[in-house]
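Side project, low priority. Logging it here so it doesn't get lost.
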Amino acid sequence: HGSQTSTMSLVVAAAAVSPALLLARRATPSSSSSSSSRRGCNRHHRRVVVVAAAAAAGGTSEEEPPPPQPTPPAQQVQQQKLADTAPINIGTAEGWRNEAIPSEPGIYAVYDDKEVLQYIGLSRKVSASVKLHAFDIPQYCGFVRCVAMPTAGKMDLQLAWKQWMLEHLGSATTTGLAGALPPGNVTGNALWSERKKGSTGKGNLRLTDGKGGPVDDAALSVLCRETVDTHAIVCFIKGTRADPDCGFSHRVCAMLDELSLEYETVDTLDEEYNHNIRNVLKGFSDWPTIPQVYYKGELVGGHDILKEMHKSGELKEAMSQ
């Protein structure tokens, strides 16, 4: 079983492999210890040497498992300054489609057409948030600066948002009103908040089953008539109510949702089930643009007419009869 001296030699020999083993020296008993204490210490030394040797060899010991690995620190996100981020023009009709706007988590800043900062936001999908702003309040959406943070957590996004806000508040060189909160971030301004999307889970009507191939224009016109006569309110839009493909369609659905009206939608971009319907509608309604809204079989109008009716209160009255 070895003496204290031989045990210490094993410890020192093992320490030559790993300097950390010198910590075992602390376990050496004094010469005044009793024989029972020495036996206990010898067992302790043997256990330390076995564990240390196993560790030096890259192994483990059942008696003394290796210490747990420390928890990795919180993710460190590489932050790009607001002023160093290139502006993207979203003031055009299709500007929100720009591929430079990330469909990933990140932060973004929206400017009007005079490049005055209006809002700083964070999002799990930047492109969707920018699209919603461009549809809801196009008058404030001229440019956007954005940074993708694909692996960022909630705290990372909040920290990055805070850094951009502090940069804006403290720098007169940043485009915008330095020293003041962007208007959209002022408490009480609800224009930039996520809107209640109403009945977004409701799907579109399909005029055909899509199995027999495209139908001719005359047959499709008949199907349009059947559709607007069957349902009280029908909106011919681009896309779906949950994900419209143009700002006009989005705003028409938003107006009807705001009035809590039940309505149906038909996607005029769906060539599989509604082939060539955009051209058919021009002759069916004698109205050149999309969206088109029908009430009890009659055309009410497009976006601009509904906007004026909604503003005056006439829309709610007309569609509640």
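Brief comment: Strands lie at 88-89, 106-111, 117-123, 143-148, 233-237, 264-267, 292-295, 298-301.
Revisit when time allows.
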